[in-house]
């Protein structure tokens, strides 16, 4: 019952705050992009704090030293939870998420995401969609932003293994940035399609960047490195 009540309070606050921001903050869509980005970072930090307090979840980040102090970065993260699509707004100064294009159709959220410079990918678009993603990523790099991509393309449950997609290899080639692997056990606490949020230590482990890995070995190496770390924290 305690878990249910904590989760209920969290969901009420989460959707109330996020929905209120989307409505009351909609005038920001008329201003410079930096206003939306700062506002989304502020909102993310608030929502993470609400989760920590209401659900008794401690977010523990290790390996921050592997992120550049400033400027562009290419981050490839395990994806277990909706939490992963939120937290990087709070962890890096100016995030660009690579996300499925369908999310741009969500009222208000989609407008904020598009206006803030998120990269939408048409997963059925083939080579044309890949070229568009690379062009937009190069623009983000020129702006000194931190790109976050989920190589699995969708959320996975604890212990589940899906095919990893080569988009990360294309991004690494286009941006000339080393890939920074990230493991997380967020699915333990904010599981896919689960109302209950469970207490505990939610780990985000940022690993050393992959340097001098041949293009044809990058995807395999990335998967091996992240999954090895996952076995320690899942």
Shape: globular
- How many extended strands? 7
CATH class: Alpha Beta
Could you say which structural class the secondary elements and strand pairing correspond to?
A: alpha/beta
Major β-sheet profile = 7 strands, mixed
End-to-end Cα distance, whole Å, is 25 Å
> Segments where pLDDT lies below 50 for 5+ residues?
none
Tell me the strand percentage band. Answer: 15-25%
Please write the string of helix (H) and strand (E) elements: HHEEHEHEHEHEEH
Please state the oligomeric state of the protein chains shown: single chain
Which fold name corresponds to the CATH topology? Glycerol-3-phosphate (1)-acyltransferase
Mean pLDDT, to the nearest integer, reads: 89
How many DSSP helices? Answer: 7
- Residues in helices, as a percent range: 40-55%
- Report Rg: 17 Å
Strand order of the largest sheet: 1-7-6-2-5-3-4
User: What's the CATH architecture name?
Assistant: 3-Layer(aba) Sandwich
Q: What's the number of domains?
A: 1
InterPro entries: Plipid/glycerol_acylTrfase
GO molecular function, one term: acyltransferase activity
Transmembrane segments: 12-30
Protein name: Lysophospholipid acyltransferase family protein
